[in-house]
Design a protein that fits this description.
- The chain is an all-alpha fold.
- Helices cover 79% and strands 0% of the residues.
- The protein contains eight helices and no strands.
- α2 packs antiparallel against α3 and α3 runs antiparallel to α4.
- The mean pLDDT is 81.
Length: 185
């Protein structure tokens, strides 16, 4: 629970790091709400793909079925907003690149990992995505991150350390006593 709280605070600090201009706070709040919705759907995607894999469906087939269903759901979005993709070859090339490199190859690797670790751990590790995006924005695009943004990055990394590092092993007698107490409740 403490790791999740650290992560939430870190995400909020990172999201709000650039807020401050006219209307930017409103945009940041809308962006965070949309991000929460995206996070929910991402968790649903991870859970459903992992569930299929646990039913002895091959990881590639599980990932393909999950992405196929998502692609079908996105078709109306493409119809309403996809015209700029077709206006120039540069736009189409960027769209093809985004589909092949970060999406196809990235999620192929994600599926490989998801077949081997619990969906909750895989989804938790993806908290590094906004940290990497922020770092790339600073290093490649020249954006500046405020102190609160850097604090958010540090808290997210700290959250991942708290959540993913194995808990300290208790001696067998104490572990059994804790297990018995927990199951008695």
């Amino acid at each position: 629970a403490s790791g999740a709280l650290i992560g939430l605070i870190g995400m909020a600090l990172l999201c709000l790091a650039k807020s401050g201009g006219h209307g930017e706070a409103d945009h940041a709040i809308v962006g965070m709400l949309l991000g929460l919705l995206a996070g929910f759907t991402y968790a649903l995607y991870s859970w459903s793909a992992r569930r299929l894999m646990q039913q002895k469906i091959a990881p590639r087939a599980a990932m393909g079925a999950t992405f196929g269903a998502g692609g079908i759901l996105l078709m109306p979005v493409l119809l309403f907003t996809g015209a700029p993709l077709l206006t120039a070859w540069n736009n189409a090339a960027v769209g093809i690149y985004m589909a092949l490199v970060p999406m196809f190859i990235g999620y192929l690797c994600y599926g490989y990992g998801l077949a081997r670790i619990p969906a909750s751990l895989a989804t938790t590790i993806t908290l590094l995505e906004p940290v990497v995006a922020a770092l790339l924005a600073v290093l490649l695009v020249g954006e500046r991150l405020s102190l609160s943004g850097w604090t958010g990055v540090a808290l997210i990394v700290g959250c991942l350390m708290v959540i993913t590092l194995p808990a300290k092993r208790l001696p067998f007698g104490k572990r059994a006593a804790l297990t018995n107490r927990a199951s008695a409740k």
